[in-house]
Amino acid sequence: MLENVIEFFRNLPKKKCDKCGEPIEEQHECYGNHCDKCNTL
Ligand SMILES: [Zn+2]
C-alpha cells in the first residue's frame, strides 16, 4: 500500500517557476509559482 503512495508522488509533474522555468522544490505548501531565486527578489 505504501509503495502505491510513493509511486503516486513520483509520477506527479514537478512545479516550474513562472518566471524562469526552473523546477521548484516543493518543501512548503504555500510556495506559490516561483522558485527560490525569483521568490526573494
Ligand atoms: Zn524562478
UniProtKB/TrEMBL annotation:
<dbReference type="Pfam" id="PF14149">
    <property type="entry name" value="YhfH"/>
</dbReference>
<protein>
    <submittedName>
        <fullName>YhfH family protein</fullName>
    </submittedName>
</protein>
<dbReference type="InterPro" id="IPR025432">
    <property type="entry name" value="YhfH-like"/>
</dbReference>
